[in-house]
Write a structure and sequence with these properties.
Layout lengths: L3 E7 L20 H6 L7 H6 L19 E5 L8 H8 L17 H11 L3 E6 L2 H15 L2 E5 L4 E7 L5 H14 L8 E8 L6 E2 L4 E4 L7 H7 L3 E5 L2 H4 L7 E3 L4 H11 L6 E7 L1 H7 L4 H20 L6 E5 L18 E6 L6 E6 L3 H10 L12 H4 L1
Parallel strand pairs: 1-11, 1-12, 2-14, 3-4, 5-6, 9-10, 9-11
Antiparallel strand pairs: 2-13, 4-5, 6-7, 6-8, 12-13
């Protein structure tokens, strides 16, 4: 039977501040500890896997006899965003931080963007996405000008009402921005943020689209697909890697939808990697400081994880991890510089404490070894620790 790996990124599910968290303004951040206080938090499958046995995790009693390999990983890349996190998971450490814009984007970039899109620009500051459409949505609908904003991450975000700027047109405008943002202004992602509704009840839709920088060299995804194996991207994986290495793209509208589609894939006879990103932990709950919603979403995920585990074949593995933190209990609405968990489950997995890995890239190297694929990463495989 062909080997399959279900690699699931719980977007923003950090497990405690990194030693350099203060350098990023994130001292004291701990996404897991914050959501574990909620009465809506109940994750028996992750607990059995060893979530609360991870070094440094003390927010709940550990499992007496955990079933999985468990540990945490430190980020070596100079960032705390989706792109650098996923690149490092897939084998590439980004030693140079991507550009950020705490004072907004340079005027010459906005002028070129306006000239080529034929539309004005509103906002141009670091902003909460929900607050941006609340504060600028009416003027956008009156003028047709695009709401452009950023965050602490390396992102150029463009919000527009779907009735004023149809989704294909918004995507075209974002492609224009991507072509402008090169060289020293090569941001990690240009993000289309469509919304609907009437003031004050604007609501962002699932038609978000990320246009990422292509990775600077081959990732795990490239190596897996080049070896003739499947590399299925569920959720925004295709967008994060600019399509590189993905043999099949499956779009999703929510965490729940992403897991339901993963469960369907588990019934298929593919061979290789099913790489899943569950973005709502970050986008809907972390960035909006919604502790209760985050906790409830983890509880729902854990239920679906139980279903996935019941579908595993003898040679399958499930890997759970994250790309950064986003502590919903802190005043900040931005990502947080945290360790991320790594939980590995499967019928061949021996329970072991993996302790602290020095880079996310170790997991990418491990995935390649599990799939018997050759490739060059910045990490060291730890597959022998749990097999």
């Amino acid at each position: 039977m062909a080997r399959r790996i279900f690699w699931i990124v719980l977007d923003s599910f950090g497990v405690g501040e990194l030693p350099d968290a203060a350098d990023f303004g994130d001292k004291g951040s701990n996404t897991l500890a914050s959501v574990a206080k909620s009465s809506k938090f109940y994750v028996p499958n992750m607990k059995r896997a060893g979530l609360f046995n991870i070094d440094g995790v003390s927010c709940a009693p550990p499992e007496k006899e955990p079933r999985g390999a468990y540990g945490r990983m430190a980020e070596q890349s100079r960032g705390k965003d989706t792109t650098t996190g996923h690149w490092e998971l897939s084998g590439i450490i980004s030693h140079k931080p991507m550009p950020t814009y705490p004072n907004g984007f340079p005027q010459e970039i906005l002028e070129e963007f306006s000239r080529r899109t034929g539309r004005g620009v509103l906002c141009n500051q670091p902003y909460s996405g929900v607050q941006a459409i609340e504060d600028y949505g009416r003027e956008h609908m009156r003028t047709g000008a695009l709401i452009v904003y950023t965050s602490a991450d390396s992102v150029f975000q463009v919000a527009a009402h779907e009735r004023i700027v149809p989704v294909p047109e918004l995507y075209r405008c974002c492609e224009i921005a991507r072509s402008i943002l090169t060289g020293e202004n090569a941001v990690g992602r240009v993000i289309a943020r469509p919304f609907v509704g009437e003031y004050p009840d604007f609501k962002r839709t699932s038609n978000r689209h990320d246009i990422s920088l292509p990775p600077p060299r081959n990732t795990v995804l490239d190596y897996v697909s080049a070896a003739g194996l499947d590399c299925i991207g569920v959720g925004k994986i295709y967008d994060i890697f600019a399509g590189r290495g993905v043999t099949r793209q499956i779009k999703t509208v929510s965490n729940d939808d992403g897991m339901e589609k993963t469960l369907e894939l588990a019934k298929e006879d593919f061979s290789g990697l099913c790489f899943v990103n569950l973005v709502e932990f970050d986008m809907v709950y972390g960035h909006r400081n919604n502790v209760e919603g985050y906790a409830a979403a983890l509880t729902q995920f854990d239920r679906q994880l139980g279903c996935l585990l019941s579908l595993l074949r003898d040679d399958d593995f499930v890997i759970l991890t994250a790309d950064h933190g986003c502590d919903p209990s802190t005043p900040s609405t931005d990502h947080s510089r945290e360790y991320v968990p790594v939980l590995i489950l499967g019928k061949q997995v021996h329970s072991v404490n993996l302790h602290t890995r020095s880079t996310f890239a170790d997991l990418g190297a491990t995935v390649l070894e599990l799939l018997h694929v050759n490739g060059v990463t910045d990490g060291i495989s730890f597959a022998s620790r749990f097999l």
